[in-house]
Structure formats: C-alpha cells, structure tokens
Amino acid sequence: MRDTLLIAKREYLEQVRGKAFKITTILIPLLFVALVGVMTLASRNSGVGKHLVVASSDAALANRVRDQLVSDKDARATVDVDAPVAGTERQALLTKVDQKDLDGFLWLDTSAPDAAKATYESRSAGDYATESRLQSAVNHALVAERLVARGIPSNEVEALTQRVDVDTVQIKNGKETESSSLSTFWAAYAMSFLLSFTVIMYGMNVGRSVIQEKTSRIFEVMLSTVKASDMLAGKLIGIGAVGLTQLAIWAVAAALFASSALATTLLSGEFKVAVSTPQIILFILYFILGYALYSTLFAGLAATCDTEQELQQYTPLAAVPIWLSFGMITFIVTNPNSIWSVAISMFPPCAPITMFLRLASQFPPLWQIVLSLGLMALSVVVLLWISSRIYRVGILMYGKRATLPEIVRWLRYS
Amino acid sequence: MSTVVYLDRISKAYEKKIAVKDLSLQIDSGVMFGLLGPNGAGKTSSIRMMIGITMPDSGTVNLFGQPFTRESLKRVGYLPEERGLYKKMKVMDQLVFMGELRGLDPAVAGRRAHDWCERLQILDAVQKKTEELSKGMQQKIQFIATLLHDPELIIMDEPFSGLDPVNATLLQDTLIDLKKAGKAILFSTHRMDQVEKLCDAICLINGGQAVLAGGMREIKSRYERNRVLLNFEGDNSFLQHPAIADYKDYGGQAEIQLKPHANAQDLLREAVQKATIYKFELVEPSLEEIFIRTVGEKVDA
User: Domain named ABC transporter: which ranges (chain B) (predicted)?
Assistant: First the structure.
C-alpha cells in the first residue's frame, strides 16, 4: 500500500506540474466557451438577412405573408412582393435565384380554393430556420385571409390569430420547479460532453504513461522492489487524482464565473444553466468509474505495445462508444425512458455519457442509476483482473506488438 | 561469511525455448561473483528469478538463508541491463523516490543521495532534470539508486556497458570498496576481461546451463599455463623448438602456443642462446579462452 501511494504521488506531482496539465486546464474551458458561443451565434444567425420574394396571384395574401415575415425582427429579412403574378414569371424568378440576386422565392398557388399550395425555392436545401419561419408565416396569413373571407373584421383577425409560445416547466417530486427544461438540458448536456472527453483523455493518458515507462525501461528498475500490480494501481490512482484535480479547478472557476456580474448578463435567457447536487455527485461517480474502465483497458493494451503509434491503433475502442452515445443524442433526449435509451445507459462503455443525456431530459429512476453504476463497477473489476495480468507480462516484453493468441497465453501465466 | 544467494536447480522455460535449465549457484557475503556467458545465455533470466520478477518453473531460490520472500528485496540492490529513469524528474527527487520505495525515510534517502553524488562527482547535477544529463551521468545515477538503501546483495547486469574508461574505473573501485565492506556482489557480463580482474568466483553459463563454476583461482589452476608472450631481438630460429605447437611472429614480438605438458623452461634456454630476450611471460589462459574451450568442448560432445 505504501508503494502504491508513493507511485501515485510521484505520478500525480509529475503530471500536475507538467505543461500539458496547465495547457489543458486553461485551453479546454476556452474551447468549450468558444464552441458554445459559435453554436449560439450560428443558431441566432441561421436564416438571417435573407432577400426573399413572395409571389402569388393573390396580392392580399402575399402582402400578409410579407408583413408576417418582416414582423419577425430576429430574421431581418428583406421581403419583396410580386403579385399578382402569372405562371410564366416563375422562370424569371428562378433565374434571379440562380444568379444570386435573390436568396429564394415563395410561390403561393391559390388557384384551387381551400387547397393553397406553397413552394419555397432556393439554392440551399435544409435551411430549417427559414423553412419554419415561412411555414408559420404562410399558415398565419392563410388563416387570417380565410377569416376575412368569412366576414370577420380585420381588426379582430389579429386578436384571433395571436401566437402563443409554450413555456416548459419540469415536475420534480410532484412539484413544479422554476428551472426551465432548457437550462437543465444544457447543464446535463454540457456535463455529458465534459465527461466523455475527460474520461477518454485521462484513460488514454494512463496508456501513454505505461508506454513511456516501457520504452524508457523504468519497469526493469522498479520491478526489483515493487510489484507490477502496485505499480498499476499507483498509476491509476495518481492519474485519476490529476483528472479530479482538473475537474475541481474547472468547477471552482465555473462557480466564481457564475456568481460574477458578467455571467448574469451572458447566461440569461436560453443559456441559463442549472446544476443540481445529485448531478454533481453522479458526475463524480461516473467520472471515477468511467475513468477506471478506460484507463484499465488502455493500461492493459499499452503493455502489449512497444510504441505510442501502436497504441493509437487501439483508439477506436474508445472512440466508438462515444460516437455511438452522441449519435443517439436526439433519440435519448426525446425518448429518455425508451428501452433503447435505458439499455445504452446500462452499457458500461457508454453509460457515463448516455446517462447524463437521459438526465438532460428527466431524472431516471434511481434503480437504473444504481444498476448502471453497479454494472460499470463490475466491468472495472473484470477488466482490472485481465489487464493486470497482461500488464505484468507485457511490460517486460519488447519487440513487436503482441498478438491476441499471445495475450491469451499471458493471461494463463501465474 | 554467510551465504547470501543460493539457487537450487532452477529452471525456466518460455514458449519456444528453455531460458535456464537446472542452474545451481551460491554467492557468499564479501564475494564478487561473475555471471558470465554470451548474449542470450540466460543471465538476465536467472537474475530475474533470483529477485522474484519472474518465478522459476522448478527449483528453489534462497536469499539470506531463507526461501525467497518479497520482504528480502529491501536488502537487495538491482541494476538491470536495460535501465531507465523518469526523464522529467529532477535527479535528487528521483533518488529520494527510489530510496523511499526501498523503505527509506525521505530525509535519510536525501542525505545518502547527497553523499553518493559527492563520491561519484555528480553533485552539481542533482537539481537538473534527468533528460538534461549525459548517458554516463544517468548511469551513475542509476548506480546510486541501486545502492542508496545499503543493500547486502548487489546485483548488476552489465554495469559498465557504455561507460568511458574513467567512469568505469570509478565504478569498479566503488564495487571493490563495497565488497571489502562485506557485501555480496553479483555482476553479469559478456566481457570476460572485466571479470578476470574483479571477480573472486564465477559461473559460466551457455544455453541456459552452467558449464563452469567455482573460484576464479581454482578454475584457472585447472588449466595449464601453455601460452608464452615473448619480446626479443635477433635470430628467431628458436621458434622451431619442439615444445611449440603454434606461434605468431610479429617481428620482435611473438605469441606462442605450447604443446600439452611441454616444458617452457627448455624453450626459454634455447631462446636466450639465440636472441636477446626482453620479455618472456608464461601466461595463464584468459577466461575468454577457457570459455571458448569449455563451450567448444560442449558443442563437440
């Protein structure tokens, strides 16, 4: 135990004093903020400042649509009306779009009464923001138009078609809570993101550190006094502590920032972030178990390799669970309790990320969290057993990377 | 004098080859012991079993008069052939860390590290990072790390490889001092010339088996002195003397191989009559020759 702690302490001090630690401690939050900033700006600016033409044989409808579009201040769109229009003019509009004089045009065909057809033509496909604005404007205008046609006074039409935004309130323990679903969503989303790369980063870090000790032949010296298992344990504890230190630094920095005046202005509205105590506790638990899982895996793999390049060939083992988890984001967030969401949050390599994505929507039943943590702990124990055996033999083997049959043979050595 | 290492017929086989077969040896305190053999003979495998890095398939290892336990490793200092240091660590931190791992108090480890660095003339490097040091310096630090906890058994695998002559001598002298202080020292090498000067006892291994073992003097006395080094001036016809089996004449210097049981004194008498002799030395066979003869015989058998 004394040896393990000495090794852990050495590993911890070396890494915390190292350049890489300082750089990542500063750079990762900066990147994170930059990423969120870019995403916010991009979503605010998507479909903004477009130059559109509304073309219809029905001038009144076309004007209503335009008024609707222009009234949306966020869109800052320039909207011209081309009405009444003849079918032959469509070609001219197409040419204008093609020559980039226009971003696009909305063709409203009202020839069949009560079955109006709207087509938006532009160079870009998949401009969801503009599409949804047009959708809402056209429908709003059509309803108004139909109401007027049925003899409702136009001043009442406005009142009748008044839009309503849906506010979301989450029910926790049978009580309505203040935090909007967006703020909890962002918090959990950010946490799952943070968890995914800290777990992998520190897991790979252990692998790299094993390789370095192997290539510098320190093992030869160390193994004459220390047991291989103590060295492995010391390394896992030491680097894990480095990870927790870095997370703690970020947490303190984030707390200081959140209490500052700058944060109040920046984090208002959609980007309000709410973090609860259970989330923090779960974050730490999932970090520790996730880190233990990946670091044990990479420690074992690193012992079979001779160079960092060889180790990098195993990177997909860490990358695939992450892709899988993030590939399922939309599904998990919208169906947090479906069988698939529950299953993937029980699957140890994906559990840290997917459980936090589920947390983003609603707090899963306690037994599921306990089960997923239990399964992770179990797989860590199994992996530790395998890895420590591979490690013990592998660190003294030089030459080419070990093949699978060789590794299986190592497992049987006593 | 007490027995420090006792190996009783230890064997170790890896997948395709037998690394060590039925090796027995004994090392006493105050003895410099040489474990010799060509590359791949099983030297490192034997040492690894001696200190519990690997376990023998059969046979027993006794250290300090008891069956092997990890506890006894606190009394052993091992310098492996392939050796490393933590590159980013400062020399002093590294030495203290190694000392602590071997059970020393950090303060004691620091003091001893300082004394050793002074003795090996690297005191001005102690605050540098290891990666900034030359290879020779790093080797000295490894040497110190091995000795910091004052081990009773010192095991060094190829300790002098890569050292310049000045530093090699410095380390050799240190080892001799340690031997005089009663430590048991085992070193392995494939360079026989080093062993001749330093070792009291040797074990020659080849193909995982001991082919020759015993005290240095005793082993040498088993072999005849039948090689002559000669410096002369004048007539060289004495080189045709019947006692000579083979010779090389470098003009004024000759290396002569005598026939078995030939009388060297007869040869000297004849040489003196024909030429001026500056030097006539009847040399004992070098360890290298003994090794080649022994291994050669085995191969023939």
Answer: 5-232
